Amino acid sequence: MSENAIWAAYEKRLLRVSAYIYEHLDEDLDLDRLSDIACLSAHHWHRVYRAVHNETLATTVRRLRLHRAAGDLVKSDRSVRDIAARWGYPNLQSFTRTFAAGYGMPPARYRKEGPHRAFEPEHGKETSRMYDIAIRTIPEQTLLSIPHTGSYMGIGKAFEALYGALFSRNLFTPDMRMIGLFLDDPDLVPEEKLRSYACVTADANVPADAPLERRTLAGGDYAVLRHKGPYADMGAAYRWLYATWLPASGRSIRDEVMFEAYLNNPRDVPPNELITEICLPLQPAIEAAA
Questions:
Q1: Among 30, 109, 228, 275, which is most exposed with the fewest C-beta within 10 angstroms?
Q2: Which domain does 213 fall in, by range?
Q3: Beta strand 213-217 pairing with 141-149
Q4: Can you give the CATH number for the domain in which 52 is found?
């Protein structure tokens, strides 16, 4: 069997395992069971997975569960103890210690005081939280993508599939940048119908065989908001961008898809060190002033 054929088989196995992990995160995930899904012995499969994703299966599961737990703290009224149990922590103390190490504060305090609370009405006034904004002219860019439907918090599943395909086909290059495209407003569209794309920048000559899709990111002026911290906190940054910065900017929105550029990787840094650029397309300044 050729090297390409071997890696094509691995790609399918990576996709199966990734899909299973995301669909069963709140269940008991036996790593031997994941090896069975991959149709390889645990001894070999764990090495293949780490070679492609640069982290162990166990580390992936822990990282994703902590991410989902942060989402529950932000969006639900579940007790902290219930959230800890839901995402596989043996006790509240273990969850508190692990969460604080990644998010910079204990879970109960994060729920009450985290950055996601930065733009919330209080007695008719929003908080004074400010974000760094720059206006940039960004050139048109070609992307390789995999679509995702459902909660934006779950787009990581599409990124796992994307990177599995790139590595197994030997297409990945270090200069590729992670991009998330988000087509719908989560305040208007039901969560299960939200459409998004996990993408990387790529030259137009890079093959885009299924499940990869080629997309084009429109060039032009963008308001670029730099956000530091967990992905679960970014709702506050979006609200500030639209409700506070945009009306005062004198600029108008251009009818193109906004996107997020991920400047570092959740596999490499803790959640409170993640850096994301939220990019809002703008009309040219001359048109905006007309």
A1: 30
A2: 132-289
A3: antiparallel
A4: 1.10.10.60
- What are 239-280's pLDDT values in tens digits? 899 989 999 999 999 999 999 999 999 989 999 999 999 999
For 200, how many CA atoms within 13 A lie in the half-sphere containing its CB?
25
Q: What angle do CA 48, 274, 52 make, to 5 degrees?
A: 10
- H/E run at residue 147: strand 141-149
The whole-number average pLDDT for the span 18-44 is 83
- Shared domain check, 146 and 86: no
Sheet holding 213-217, edge to edge: 132-138, 220-228, 275-281, 259-262, 178-182, 195-201, 141-149, 213-217
pLDDT band, very low/low/confident/very high, at 9 (cuts 50, 70, 90): confident
Residue 79's alpha-carbon distances to 36, 72, 73, 95, 99, in angstroms, are 35, 9, 8, 13, 15
Chain position carrying tokens 């920048």: 201
The reply to whether 103 and 136 lie within a common domain is no
